[in-house]
Structures are given as structure tokens and as C-alpha cells.
Amino acid sequence: MNPLEHQLHYPFGATQPEPGQALEVAPGVLWVRLPLPFALDHVNVWLVRDEFAGRQGWTLIDCGIARDEVKAQWEQVFQTALQGLPVLRVVVTHMHPDHVGLAHWLCERWQAPLYMSMADYALARLWSQPGAKGSAAGGEQAVAHYARHGLTDADSQAQIRQRATYYSGLVPAVPDTFHRLLHGYVLSIGGRDWRLIVGHGHAPEHISLYDPQAKLLVSGDMVLPRISTNVSVFDMEPDANPLQLYLDSLSNYDGLPADTLVLPSHGRPFVGLHERIAQQRSHHDERLADVIQACGARPCSASDIVPVLFKRKLDLHQLTFAMGEALAHLHALYFQGKLGRSTGEDGIVRFSAA
């Protein structure tokens, strides 16, 4: 266990929902855990009892990836947890495959409308098209992006090149229409008003939902209990500064009560929102100090910084995110004026003390 977890409170202990089952975490709020084929092996999704357009039923928050085994688990949930009622609406916190992958299937299966932020809906629509460029995980544009930042290993490049359809493979379609979610808006679900909180850096326009009546926060990926939220620079926006955006976004949670029950996308529900945000800020401060020290010793590419930030062995899926995160830390320092950058004769971008 991460020792920082001891500073958080887990009301349900080690209990978690079994595959295809739901666990009630608050009146009218159910927790479902869906599988992922990665080192991060699950995503949490939420069902909220609802009444919409004169009908009784449920609103789903997040969807899982488009895989037959995930659909099968959803079907089990529909049979055992919905009390014979339909799904009325589908809410997606952001455009990553584990959150939006089955939105099209769920919306079509239940004739239910989709609710998302504009930026994440548009990007999901774009990247779900086969052959779309800039989808972060693979293809020639991604190869060139990572090579420019020092990932020149031929085997890794070949694997990245082959992942051109990675996103569309997990998100084969996105509904043609949606309802837009915006920061500060209120979404009424089951007669309770959920305030929408936008977050940047992890996704373009990530939406969390807060119910002040029950003190519940569906945090998505913006606040996670065990792991730090991935914040990366990808090929579509090569000069992005997502780490600063992410850290600035965390202030949007400042006014929430200390006893808020956080419902994260990965890990277990917990109490300790402000403690966890403080931990995240401290974590990134430490990593930024490590990066400054490394670049002060010699000019470093993002590839050089990966082992500074990540001490464990990484598979290719993890390596692409690690490269993106290394570059996010370098860019944060560069835009603060603490690092300079230059492109060498080998075409690789390196950062050094300003």
C-alpha cells in the first residue's frame, strides 16, 4: 500500500463490487467495477437513481472500453442492479477510452442521450475515426513526436507505429448528438442537483460531479487515491503545458467539505479530498525539483527524464504515458522560465538550466 493512503479514510475498507455486480455507496448511488487490459486493471463507473422526462430509471456515469467482456458485465448489472428500470441518461466525465468507449453502445442500447463537455466530445468523435492523426497512442505522427524527444529505439517506434488504431479500437464510435456539460452548471439527477466542476491537464475539459446534499464527489480521474493522475504532452498539441493546467484546476475543489466522499475512477471511494490534493501538489513539487536537478547536471530530453520520474520497468503502453508526463514536467519548468530548451543537430529537443 502507498503510505500516503494511510492518511485517507476508506469507508468500505477493502470491499469492492464483484464482476457484473453493483455495490451501493450512498442512497441511490451504485458502484460498478469494469475490467481493463492494462497494468491499471479496472475503471469504476457509477449508477445514480434518476427520474427524467417523467420516467423512473438510472443515469450512468462513465462506460468502460468497447470489449465484449465489458458489455457482458454491463448486461449482468442491468439484470441484477437496476430493479427492472431503464437507463435514462449516459454521462461521460472525459474522452479517454475507459470512460467513453462504450458510450455509443449504451446510448443505443437504451435510447439514452449522452452528456459530455464540448471539448472532450469533439476529440472523442475525431479520434474514434479510423486513421485519425494525433490520437496520442500511436501512428507516424506519434512516432515523430516521441523521436523528437529522445525515444529513438527502433523496436519501440515500430510498436508505436502499429498502434495507429489504438483509440478507435477501444472507442469504435461516439453518439452523433450530445448534451453539453459546462463548469459551474448544475445537472439534476433524481431530484438532486449535481454541480459540475471542470478540470484541465488530464483531459481537455474533464467534468467532475458534486452533490452537496449527500456530499458526494464523482471525481473521475482528476483526484485518485493511490496513483497520480497522468498529465501528458502528446503529439496533437506539442507545445502544451498540461501540468500547470492540472495544478491550477485542483483549486476548483477547494470549497468542498472535508468530509466529502470521493468516488474516483480508479481505486476505492475515500474521504480525504483536501489531503489527497495536497499530496498531489507535493508529489509534483518533488518531481519538478528532480527534473531541475537533472537538467542542471546536463541537457536532458524527455526520454532522459523518464527514469528520473519512474524508477520501475515500464511496458510500451506505460512508456508512452511516461514520456508524455516527463515532457509535461519539462514544459511546466520551461514556461516558468526555469529551463531553456534547444534542438540538437540530431533533431532531439533537450532542456537545460536557464
Architecture (CATH level 2) name: 4-Layer Sandwich
Q: Helix and strand string, N-terminal first?
A: EEEEHEHHEHHHHEEEEEHEEHHHEE
| Distance between the amino and carboxyl termini | 38 Å
Main CATH class: Alpha Beta
Give the spatial strand order of the biggest sheet.
Answer: 1-2-3-4-5-6-7
CATH superfamily: Ribonuclease Z/Hydroxyacylglutathione hydrolase-like
The shape, in one word, is: globular
Radius of gyration: 20 Å
Q: Approximately what portion of the residues adopt beta-strand conformation?
A: 15-25%
Number of helices: 11
Low-pLDDT residue spans: none
Would you count the extended β strands for me? 15
**Major β-sheet profile:** 7 strands, mixed
Look up the CATH topology: Metallo-beta-lactamase, Chain A
* Helical content (DSSP H or I, runs of 4+): 25-40%
Task: Quote the average pLDDT.
Answer: 95
Secondary structural class: alpha/beta
Number of domains: 1
Secondary structure elements and pairings:
Blueprint: E1 23-26, E2 29-35, E3 42-52, E4 55-61, H1 68-81, E5 87-91, H2 97-100, H3 103-110, E6 114-117, H4 118-127, H5 140-148, H6 154-162, H7 166-170, E7 179-181, E8 186-189, E9 192-199, E10 206-211, E11 216-220, H8 242-249, E12 261-264, E13 270-271, H9 273-297, H10 302-309, H11 316-335, E14 339-343, E15 349-353
Parallel strand pairs: 4-5, 5-6, 6-7, 11-12
Antiparallel strand pairs: 1-2, 2-3, 3-4, 8-9, 9-10, 10-11, 12-13, 14-15
Helix pairs in contact: 5-6, 9-11, 10-11
